[in-house]
Specification:
Shape of chain A: globular
CATH class of the domain at 180-257 in chain A: Mainly Beta
CATH architecture of the domain at 180-257 in chain A: Beta Barrel
Radius of gyration of chain A: 23 Å
CATH topology of the domain at 180-257 in chain A: Thrombin, subunit H
Helix content of chain B: 55-70%
Number of helices of chain B: 7
Helix content of chain A: 25-40%
Distance between the termini of chain B: 16 Å
Distance between the termini of chain A: 62 Å
Largest sheet of chain B: none
Strand content of chain B: under 5%
Radius of gyration of chain B: 15 Å
Oligomer: heterodimer
Number of strands of chain A: 12
Order of helices and strands of chain A: HHHEEEEEEEEEEEE
Order of helices and strands of chain B: HHHHHHH
Strand order of the largest sheet of chain A: 1-2-5-4-3-12
Shape of chain B: globular
Chain lengths: 277, 175
């Protein structure tokens, strides 16, 4: 093996395993700040190159994707046009409801999203990992984004910021199995805990009292109860199914996220952090 | 592995990392992402031997862990073990063939995902894999096989490895 740099396979293997196990031990309970810094450097190194690669491959990807999905896009376009028309009509009737809501909120001292500063961020990639369901956005520490900031679109909750580098951030999506948010129902009085179930799966709402009457299509909002990590009033999803199994101690409720979490392009990062206890 | 190849290696790994984070990131099959970094570790093990496979797996694992919230080192441990395992082909008497590479890739992809899920379960971490392990093993195994068939010729070209040429340490490698 002359001219080789690597010479001792088993020693190399043992050393690398030891390093890996040490890293796991150090970062298992609590991630030290220097590891977060190292993560940030790797991300800042890969992100610009990734953007270059994307710029090269995007046109090819778009052509291939467009060719195979032309009929889908056409029907989607038609559907969106119909939705826009319906929304225009709905906006007129909403104006009165909004003024009424503002008055009530003021009287009840409820803080809704209206008063929260936001920054718009572009989604630069979906995290290509099976370890978590997340996205990368192009705003980071330099734009004032902090770990824990909720992320939304005009339609509803998208997730929350879990890692921040200088010029990018990672957002844990609501479909991740580690995602959980307290929610409340609109028509039925009651609260629950919405938990992600993985890519393209509906959310599961836990801890719902059996017998709670929920209608299909009912919109569910973040509860904003004490200790909650999201502000109140963010739409989360629509009820897809709700039933109490025989002898069940809680109602089985599934939600379809309102935000198009599988196809995000721009999101709003709310510069809001949960109040410290 | 000559010094020139050694210099090329970081650039190739950076390109693979960037490629993985490009549009390919949006690709999911049954809710599972094809693991390109795992497949690349297998390919390097097959082409350059167990030691390079382990080192490449370790480095790509660091990249994967940098973008996830899981404890640092989990992906490194899995990828380096799989890279090393794929590279063990160099000490077998298996003849050089695309079929052998495909079989090793399929097995490597399946073992890698199962190993990753096992470690995460030991650590008490829930991921997408936990709910869909069978699908994840199938998807990752198949995509690793396809990826190895596609990327192996490119890596051969970039790393100046001749067709039919196994790692130089093959069958003569010892500690």
């Amino acid at each position: 093996m002359s001219g080789s740099i690597f010479r001792r396979p088993r020693i190399t293997l043992v050393l690398l395993i030891l390093v890996s196990v040490s890293m796991i031990s150090v970062t298992y309970k609590r991630v030290p700040p220097f590891v977060n810094s190292a993560r940030g450097y790797v991300r800042d190194l890969v992100t610009p190159i990734r953007q270059g690669v994307t710029a090269v491959f995007n046109p090819v990807y778009n052509v291939v994707s467009g060719a195979f999905n032309y009929s889908n896009l056409k029907s989607q376009n038609l559907k969106l046009e119909q939705e826009i028309a319906a929304l225009k009509g709905g906006a007129l009737s909403n104006a009165y409801a909004q003024s009424e809501l503002a008055t009530l909120s003021k009287e009840l001292h409820i803080t809704y999203l209206k008063g929260i500063a936001t920054t718009t961020a572009q989604v630069i990639s979906y995290t290509p990992s099976n370890l978590q369901v997340s996205i990368e956005v192009d705003k980071g520490k330099s734009s004032g984004v902090q770990v824990g900031n909720p992320v939304v679109t005009g339609l509803g909750l998208v997730g929350r910021v879990i890692q921040v580098a200088n010029f990018s951030s990672t957002v844990l999506l609501i479909t991740d199995p580690n995602f959980a948010a307290g929610v409340r129902f609109t028509k039925a009085s009651g609260v629950g805990l919405a938990v992600g179930e993985g890519n393209s799966n509906p959310l599961n709402v836990q801890l719902v009292d059996p017998g709670t009457v929920l209608s299909k299509g009912e919109v569910v909002y973040t509860s904003g109860l004490s200790g909650e990590i999201y502000p109140a009033g963010i739409p989360v999803g629509k009820v897809v199914a709700a039933y109490t199994p025989p002898g069940g101690l809680q109602e089985q409720v599934t939600l379809k996220p309102l935000a198009p979490v599988g196809n995000l392009q721009f999101v709003d990062v709310l510069k809001w952090l949960p109040p410290k206890p | 592995m000559t010094r020139l190849r050694y210099l090329k290696l970081p650039l190739i790994l950076l390109a693979i990392s960037a490629l993985e984070r490009s549009q390919l990131g949006t690709l999911t099959i049954q809710g599972i992402h094809p693991d390109i970094l795992l497949a690349a570790s297998i390919s390097f093990g097959l082409l350059e031997g167990r030691e390079v496979g382990a080192v490449v797996g370790f480095v790509l694992g660091i990249v994967a862990d940098s973008f996830a919230q899981t404890p640092f080192g989990v992906s490194s441990l899995v990828y380096l073990a799989v890279g090393y395992g794929a590279g063990l082909i160099e000490v077998t008497s298996m003849p050089e063939s695309k079929f052998a590479d495909l079989v090793v890739s399929l097995i490597g992809g399946a073992v890698g995902v199962a190993f990753l899920d096992g470690i995460l379960k030991i650590l008490g971490i829930t991921t997408v894999l936990s709910n869909n392990l069978v699908v994840a093993v199938t998807v990752t195994s198949l995509t690793s096989g396809i990826f190895t068939l596609v990327i192996a010729p490119i890596l051969r070209f970039l790393m100046n490895i001749g067709e039919g040429e196994r790692p130089p340490s093959r069958r003569s490698a010892g500690i």
